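Late entry, evening session. Most of the bench is empty. Finally got around to the prediction I had been postponing all week. Sequence below, unchanged from the version circulated by S.P.
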Amino acid sequence: MLSALSKGFFLYLSKNRILNRVAKKWGLKLGASQVVAGNSLESMVVKVRELNEKGLLCTLDHLGEFVSSKEEADSATDAAILTLETIANTGLNSHLSVKLTQLGVDVDRDFCVNNMRRILETAEKYQNFVRIDMEDYSHYKVTLDILQELRETYPNVGTVIQAYLRCAEEDMKTLQDVPLRLVKGAYKELPMVAFQHKKEVDDNFMKLIKIRLLSRSYTAVATHDHHIIESVKQFVEEQQISRDQFEFQMLYGFRTEMQQSLANEGYKMRVYVPYGSDWFAYYMRRLAERPQNVSFALKGFLLK
């Protein structure tokens, strides 16, 4: 039964504004507390400090989507700035990740850019780094355009390249000096723009990783796939690539033993830590990525 629940179904749910509003009232239900580090700054600080003490780096994401007004985007911007201030004031070892849709790109592009500038100025003040998460393909070009605009002033900003996109390799060549996170991709896209089969995505992912590492540009390899991770470890050993040039990244709550193992082996291991009440869309995408996650969610729900 669970295997019949399609990726498209969960991605459809992730975009449902009504369910998203209802979920905020539920609190962290349906097993979401296993993969979201609480509703508040206080709960987030506790979780990140625990991870740091285990030798794990973090990047924080104050969750939020479906922004349709400047007031909502201003609030999201203030939350991002407060997160950066909290990181600095509590001594956490963490970067920040943001989504342009949360900062108002669908409302007013220039308004969104100004919000990003506010965030990056705060990050610069505290010598921190901000990554712009890549969203669905409809936001792909505007994300890269805004990134390039911001990079003219702020070197402390990077983004994400999704290996399932057919244009990923070509676009990655234009981002040599930009710190990148490489991922497989979590949205449902049309065949004309994205590979549809797992092997195609996996092969392209590994190809991009190798190209990027050989370019000596700083790279975050974000995956839970142990086959990919072992291939990367072997490749950097063969090519004598310094461990200071790359890091592994995984999501909070997933494959925690592997995260710890990589850190213990001396690799940089960064955990993507989402927090906040607007958790529903993020959680639905996690369920869409792998069928195993559905069982994981139900297990967490039944334990409540």
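Two things to note before I forget:
The chain has one domain: 37-278.
Strands lie at 57-62, 94-98, 130-132, 157-162, 180-183, 219-222, 246-251, 269-275.
Will write this up properly tomorrow.
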